[in-house]
Amino acid sequence: MFALSPDQWQAVSPYLDEALALTEGERASWLASLREQNPELAGHLQVLLEEHRALAQEGFLEQAPVAPPVGPGLAGRQIGAYTLVSSIGQGGMGAVWLAERSDGRFQRRAAVKFLSLALAGRGGEERFKREGSILGRLAHPHIAELLDAGVSPDGQPYLLLEHVEGEHIDQYCDRHRLDVEARVRLFLDVLAAVAHAHANLIVHRDLKPSNVLVRNDGQVKLLDFGIAKLLEEGADAAAATLLTQQAGGVLTPAYAAPEQIAGGLVTTATDVFALGVVLYVLLTGQHPAGSATRSTADLVKAIVDAEPRRLSDVVATADAEGATANSANRATTPDKLQRVLRGDLDTIVAKALKKNPQERYASVTEFADDLRRYLKHEPIAARPDTLRYRAAKFVRRNRTVVALAALVFVASVAGIAGTLIQARTARAQRDFAFRELSRAEAINDLNNYVLSNAAPAGRPFTVSHLLEGAEHIVGRQRGDPTTRAELLISIGRQYTVQDNYEKARRLLEEAYALSRTLPERSTRARASCALGQALSRGGDLARAEALLQEGLSDLPTDSLFVVDRVFCLLRGSEIASNGDHARQALERAQAAEHLLLQSSFHPDSLELDAMIVLAGAYNHAGRRGEASAAYQRAAARLAELGRDDTQMAGTLFNNWGTTLILAGQPLQAERALRHTIEISRDEQGEDFVSPTTLANYASALYQLGRLDSAADYAERAYAKASKVGDNMAISQVLLHRARIYRARGDLAGAGRMLAEVEPRLRSLPAGHIAFGVLASELSLNAQVAGDVSKAMELANQAVAISEASARAGRRSAEYEGNFLVRRSGIELQLARRDQALDDAYRALPLLEQGSVPGSFSSNLGRAYLALGGALQAQGKGNEARAAFRSAAEHLDNTLGPDHPDARSARQLAGLDTQHK
Amino acid sequence: MGVHEGAGERMKATISSLITAAENGDESAAEALFPALYTELHRVAKRELARQGAPVSLGVTTLLHEAYLDIAARNGSGPLFPDRARFMGYAARVMRGLIIDHARNRRAQKRGGQFEITSLATDVAENVADDRELTRISQALNELAKTDPGLAEIVDLKFFCGFSFAEIAGMRGVSERTVQRNWEKARIYLHRSIRADLSS
After folding, report:
1. Residue pLDDT, tens place only, A774-792
2. Which of A312, A463, A544, A786 could form a disulfide with A532 if both were Cys (CB 3.0 to 4.6 A apart)?
3. Is the ipTM of this complex over 0.90?
4. Which residues between 112 and 141 in chain B have a beta carbon less than 8 angstroms from any beta carbon of chain A?
5. What is the pTM of this model?
6. How many angstroms separate the CA atoms of A471 and A463, rounded?
7. B118–A295: do the CB atoms touch at under 8 Å?
8. How far is residue A668's CA from residue A659's CA, in Å, rounded to a whole number?
């Protein structure tokens, strides 16, 4: 063993910086590659890193040395029957001393807390003693006993407390590696103690791990009920606030409830909140307001404003080292920990941490009851936030009066899209430039361009300018082909994300061709997968899938390539979605998420990419509840990263909007999509909004009966999609336009649109649901034109295609349901009453499946309308009215009560007698 | 602990100029700086504790902040005035010395059988790191300060004075990650020095 000489230290120092920034897992491979270049240096570093591991284990320099007691010595002073022995710390309220009973008969130790209260002149002594005696009645095995309270001869008030030897509850749990269940059980003891205090009208107000000790025998002891506010009615107000005024200044912000910070009413609910924070910390090892990196001001803001992340999300997204350590302390792995926390514990803690005290558990006892139910695997009383509640936070209800409507259904060929180009603010532009082009960022040339040339004279630059400039530089660049390929991939991906497929394909083809000559597997794989994804949007699914497989097979299963594998799996999920293989799309997205969860390295953008793709895959698989939850998580994560006006947020809201359209919630969809457009448009207009977003927005407007705006957006979407060569968006817009023409009574126009769609679908595989959609649209045209038998024939075709699609395991439920509803109407016209009733009944469970569980759906509303019609035709008036009532409820809530369909449903149900 | 009465007023006025002079290479200023800070810390502690309603003792970080505010108030924002980070760096070195002295005294007391330290958990962690270990750490820190003064200062602030990573990061205007990484580096250096010391 030798100490390092200054020269040696300076030589290894920069390498240590590098190594310490890596996770344990990454260090091994980093060392290995260093060893190839400089074996001697690598050897030194290895020794030092091993030393680091050892010193971390022994806790070297982790315990602070004892600070000298600065202040007048109190040792030996007499406090009641006790003699002060030594200072044992500085609590929130004042100094704490160890004292011994000194009457010689028996030895007893106590802790003396001196409160820094100025009592002089207020007749405080008596009052303080009175309060002390109330606290003294608080006898409970889990509450440190208050032995006495008084004022020392020199005017210093003190509390004489049971001396507890133990450690903070969080440290105790970690040291004993208690698993989640054991932690919950221990926490129940804490709740029992607090409940006892509450029953005695005493609120703790400052619950935190350092006030909850666990002795060596495992007994919990709560300290510091000394600052409790006495709730006792009729008590002298001055007396009741004496202690609490003091408490105001020493409050521990990390565990304070919003109302404490805002100066609101402090009640037992305040303790419920603090207990929620303690449980959060015990279960995750992290604070609900986020990492400990913040200033008090940020922390306070987070407590008042920010929704805490779910327990299960937090343990999954903590940095890898932290996550592993946290879960090891809980005798488990990050993956398992996440699974244990997900669901009931998420819900229970979220309820305790509600900003509004009235939404929290009404009592500590109820909190405890739910935890006990959780332990017994019984259903808990707290309800998770529903989609409606959560979505309402950004999607406020739209009560716009709508003009027209037709009995139509949602169908979107493409559904999920990348979006938008232009972030509105300068900050968001920088965000884009620096973060989204992260791979390119490494290249100095490009950096120089971004920093100096892209925005000459300080003018804001657009992303398009940036990309064009980047392309230009790549075009000029000679030299390293790997760098060049990586740059091409980055830029190509950006164009893909902006739905500019023509440019994307050109650049990615070039990247792919170039990458074939390269040895770097990562670059090769990324080029294949990125190109595959871009091609799948253009309909070349066979080559897309082949490229994906090529990319995946290029990647070793090594952890070094996890990020690339995740990238490829996500692109694979999108390819499968575009090929209408919902199950495969979901499997790939889940595999990507799983890898990412296990990996020690999660770049934010990849993590968000994965969240959004996974949500899309759930949506595509018709699992709307899970899709909504996934979008919710992604939106929360974006907000947390301060990226809520970036293009990624635009993509997210676009896709969420699409889900809402498919789930029959056009009002909410309109909000989400409008949000996307707002993010992506700049001062000049909507030039930078993606054609898919425009098309989706047109679709939402159409459903709401706002045909003029819908037509307007559909045309813009069409122009934009044609310009950038997005075939899928073109087909989608043509379908929307056909519907809009028909709704306006222009059957010829509608026919023209559908005729244009037909050849565009040829590149799709046989049996693709888009063929069903087309047949169904043609059927509607025929029905409106009066050719009912042709309409019937086409409706049968549509249903058959969706049935086959379902058998093949592809997404279909809401399509099949909607096709059946439509066919039911035609059957009714043909007086095939039994079939009409049959189809309506069959449609209901399918559409139920396609909506967000527990939410209203315009699709279901229309199915109930069809059912009511079929029942009425059979003379079953009462049942028909019941069906119409359901229809009215669904349509009121999804289209707005002023929508003609909602109105007519209410009239049919006999709910609305006023004819407008 | 001896508090140098009266010296405070004179010293207080000169601490900021001493820091500036020391940084400009004035060795006598550097020599004068530490006793001046030492006295100043005592003076502030005494004053704080004498205030009505004040706590019976002061935390280290509180003490340093108070001392800084005091000097800042006195100097206004004159050009000579050192920023908080620089001040804390010097003050933390002084604090290190005080803490080691204290640990020596405690050991002496313990040998005398006066009392055992009990570990009642409070906001300030109690610990039995003995003064010999602390002295070794201090010597190694002095060595480290010659090549990498920034790292040594982090140890003074974090280990001896109890500042959090966030606070140190805030003082220096760097990210918390950077502070943490530097802390880990410093620990490696110190651990290695002390072990080498012991095995030689």
Report:
1. 999 999 999 999 999 999 9
2. A544
3. no
4. 115, 117-127, 129, 134, 137, 140
5. 0.43
6. 12
7. no
8. 10
